[in-house]
Amino acid sequence: MAIVGVQSAIFGVDDLAACEKFFADFGLVVASRSADEIDYELTEGSHVVLRRSGDASLPKVFANGPGIRRVIWGVDTKEGLEAIETDLGRDRPVTRDADGTIYCEDDAGLPIGFRVFVRNRLVSDEEFTNVPGLTRRWNRHRKWFSRARPQLIHHVVFGFPQFDKAAAFYRNRLKFRVTDVARGRGIFLRADGRSDHHNIFWARTEKPTFMHISFGVENLDELLAGANNMQRQGWNSKLGLGRHRISSTIYFYIENPAGGEAEYSADTDCLDDNWQPRIWEPLFGNQHWVADLPAFLTVPPNEDVRLLADEMPELAKVNS
Fold first, then answer.
1. For the whole model, what pTM was predicted?
2. Fewest Cβ atoms nearer than 10 Å: which of 15, 54, 227, 271?
3. For 3-119+150-315, which CATH superfamily applies?
């Protein structure tokens, strides 16, 4: 059994029309639409589903306000799906839909689901970069982008007071790998069937919170084209363009009327089970360079990174 990433992110939103404009500008493609629901499909086959907040089909609210109401994880095989159903059914209610999707809640109370998901193969052009002393692109331009068209869902981010408890469920019950830890701030986890640096991040917050969803684009050029287009359409970014040290990801977060933020992501680290988790000073790990860094996010002088060890012993053997 392997979990291969987010198959669907199901939102409850207050203003469906505003959200429809946002995601059209953002670059998602509509698969189906009704008066009360919009379903977007990405190239990999994953979905973003928008429903009105009062829709009776939505599960209970995890976090106040608009945002993701349920995350459905893709599983590679029917046998793997049945194994998850059996295991989780030992200590919580698990229901099954007519299409075979199973539903429950994680240990933080977030509604989740699982269904068989065969991801579409993604193909990107190799874009050679010329640098001083090393010319790799001769007699041709780089690929041009006028806007972004995200191809995949990289990760989702939630906050919870007991973030370590929330993360432990994914590690212990669903075989996610802990990839890195932001000291006292949160835990990054990778699904066992994916190579992205993380597919879910649990942050420490005072109350349950939906924070953002990350969408993968081809490269920095496409990310910049998307960021510029979103700003021209009037959408706001608090930080602007930046790169995370902890995952190498180039990012651009945009305030999202569907809740939290939507992130364009490019050039993220890819990991396998040879990776060793590390503990990071949170701000040092989060910001390498950023377009607009508020004073309260200034990196303190004790910036460091180390291998995961005695400081968080409950995670020390996570990938053994």
1. 0.92
2. 54
3. 2,3-Dihydroxybiphenyl 1,2-Dioxygenase, domain 1 (3.10.180.10)
